[in-house]
């Protein structure tokens, strides 16, 4: 039987080696790297530049999606994308009153799977009066200018994509009744900007709780993904909040999210496969084929439920899943906010 190898390399080996963790994928763009169970680090290190190893461990995927009872609270979601952030809150019992994104494909996915409350809109053109009153605001604002893989031009008002942060601050100044809390999400690089964020939150009436870094792999998803969450609490509400603790005891295997039957269109061509695995022991192309992760596997890596349907092209879906807040992480924070605020 020809066995499958998942993943491919088209960046430098250095970056590849850096991203590998035990059986956990890193979804940096479309690149997926993993190390199978039982392969020693030293062995992996010698092979890493040449080969991605075959998967010998696969279990039937289990969708553990459950819904908590409605809690009567509402949120708004800016830059909602396909709705990863929102799904975490919906799962915890929240209702989403308004959701906005200017990408028509993200809006298509969101509308089909989550609800008609989503609108295609440029947040920089919105007005306070367009925004329903809610308990909280979610905003996973664009990260291109903050991430180390991106342009690093920073959060500049009216100039960079990440400067859209200031548009949310503007809207907070325009609404008649401010939400009790606001929650931003962004890449690791945002920590360098936390004093600016603290100042901006304060100007519009919020206290920034100490920024919290979470790694998706510690939230029962086999993906190494670190993101900061920046919670602001309205000054008249309360001052403190305890983020849920991340348990580092269990990291699921990548094999737990893989599909058993994969369409051939996800197989990598022979020449590229040979480049990837050509020189390594046991990676004989007559015995193995190489494939990339499927869109469904991307959705599983982010904690989306199996019922979430793909209604856009593969490339749009990969992008939307790659952009999303990991649902499991959003859910844990949503529950803590529900308990404490
Ligand atoms: C990091 S993604 C958000 C992902 C989303 N929070 C989730 O969990 O699925 C950023 C989103 O901002 C949207 N966006 C960028 N600029 C925008 C703008 N000016 N107005 C509205 N949406 C914008 C992009 O289309 C993208 O979907």
Characterise the protein shown here.
The chain is an alpha/beta fold. 27% of the residues lie in helices and 15% in strands. It contains ten helices and ten strands. The protein has helices at residues 13-19, 41-47, 84-91, 104-113, 165-174, 194-203, 270-277, 295-301, 314-323, 327-340, and strands at 3-6, 74-78, 95-101, 118-120, 136-139, 181-187, 206-208, 212-215, 226-234, 288-291. The strands form two sheets. Strands 2, 3, 4, 5, 6, 7, 8 and 9 form an eight-stranded mixed β-sheet that branches. It has a two-stranded parallel sheet with strand order 1-10. The radius of gyration is 21 Å and the shape is globular. The termini are far apart. The model is unreliable at 8-23, 27-56 and 278-282 (pLDDT under 50). It binds S-adenosylmethionine (SAM). The site of S-adenosylmethionine has 23 residues, from helix 3 and strand 3.
